[in-house]
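Lecture notes, part 5. Sequence design as translation. It can be helpful to think of inverse folding as translation between two languages: the language of shapes and the language of residues. The source text, in structure tokens, appears below.
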């Protein structure tokens, strides 16, 4: 290869869903254009007129529908991707989640790609036996697997026989702290936009309304505390299929004036300073970005005592047992009894911890090193 030739990198994601905090975009931002030529590819979907575009030098949307990635039709889709890669002669491919990984485990048998990287974002992504078999059968020495937290990495090695400490590593999720802080609204403005009284003690969360996020336990825990702490308000920011279930739970418990379902918000992290405490009672996570974003706003946290959350906050925040509304209520009450000064001090410790261990510069550097060492 010519000394002056840039390294050609292809990054593949399942769906077109670009946001400012997208970690795929952060990988691209860590690859200088004088050294790397990056193409962002998306298997499904394409941008609408007002959607954000990838910061990659090139973008391609295959715009497959789900049926084109299953059964006999998938072979035509695979051939289209194969022809594209053969024409472009990529040196490195980065696959996010299982579907792109599965595709390139197959195509890698016929293409001359120096380094293939698979990024796994959650625990359980390889629970299914056929996924484990695909990795064991098709993995080659030019593959590296990345877990977004120690627990995700451990899960990968445990479940897939073809993975080990030589071809699997941890690159912790991270955020651009400066960007996050720049878009966060001031406390009073954020509360006004969310319809929260200024004198309320607000415990909130941000995330999809799906069972694995544990919102039902947050609602139940609120019921244990509402009478004792009349200023308590619980705010859940996000949308999803559990919305009607949660509304019914709130109505039945008589918590309409306590629990606020704020709905889906663009760039929801701008509202974190409206919160006195951020709670994440999830049953399973990879390494939650919303938790890191709350920490960037100096907001104290509560998180489930699960492997992906425990290491992030165990020395600075409060842990609660998963699927336990009583344990969650105890953690909430701990903060309700702190003074304003103690809350502020705890919030500052969260920010300091975030800056030390989860900054975006280290994240970009780790991926750049992984790619450069191909």
């Amino acid at each position: 290869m010519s000394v002056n030739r840039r390294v050609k990198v292809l990054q593949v994601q399942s769906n077109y869903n670009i946001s400012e905090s997208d970690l795929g975009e952060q990988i691209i931002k860590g690859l200088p254009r004088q050294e790397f030529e990056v193409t962002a590819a998306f298997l499904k979907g394409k941008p609408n007129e007002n959607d954000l575009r990838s910061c990659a030098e090139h973008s391609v949307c295959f715009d497959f529908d789900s049926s084109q990635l299953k059964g006999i039709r998938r072979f035509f889709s695979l051939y289209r991707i194969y022809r594209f890669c053969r024409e472009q002669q990529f040196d490195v491919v980065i696959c996010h989640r299982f579907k792109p990984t599965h595709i390139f485990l197959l195509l890698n048998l016929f293409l001359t790609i120096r380094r293939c990287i698979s990024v796994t974002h959650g625990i359980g992504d390889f629970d299914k036996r056929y996924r484990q078999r695909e990795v064991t059968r098709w993995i080659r020495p030019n593959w590296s697997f990345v877990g977004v937290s120690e627990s995700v990495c451990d899960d990968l090695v445990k479940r897939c026989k073809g993975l080990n400490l030589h071809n699997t590593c941890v690159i912790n999720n991270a955020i651009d702290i400066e960007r996050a802080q720049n878009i966060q609204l001031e406390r009073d403005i954020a509360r006004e936009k969310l319809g929260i009284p200024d004198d309320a003690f607000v415990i909130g969360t941000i995330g999809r309304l799906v069972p694995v996020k544990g919102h039902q336990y947050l609602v139940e825990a609120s019921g244990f505390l509402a009478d004792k702490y009349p200023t308590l308000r619980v705010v859940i920011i996000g949308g999803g299929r559990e919305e009607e279930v949660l509304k019914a739970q709130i109505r039945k418990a008589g918590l309409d004036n306590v629990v606020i379902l704020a709905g889906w918000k663009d760039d929801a992290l701008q509202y974190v300073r409206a919160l006195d405490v951020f709670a994440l009672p999830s049953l399973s996570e990879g390494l939650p970005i919303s938790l890191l974003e709350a920490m960037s706003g100096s907001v104290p946290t509560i998180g489930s005592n699960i492997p992906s959350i425990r290491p992030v906050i165990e020395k600075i925040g409060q842990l609660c047992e998963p699927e336990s509304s009583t344990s969650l209520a105890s953690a909430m009450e701990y903060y309700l009894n702190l003074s304003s000064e103690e809350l502020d001090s705890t919030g500052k410790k969260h920010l300091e911890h975030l800056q030390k261990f989860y900054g975006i510069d280290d994240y970009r550097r780790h991926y750049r090193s992984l790619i450069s060492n191909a």
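The translated text above is only one of many valid answers, since several sequences can fold into similar shapes. The mean pLDDT is 94.
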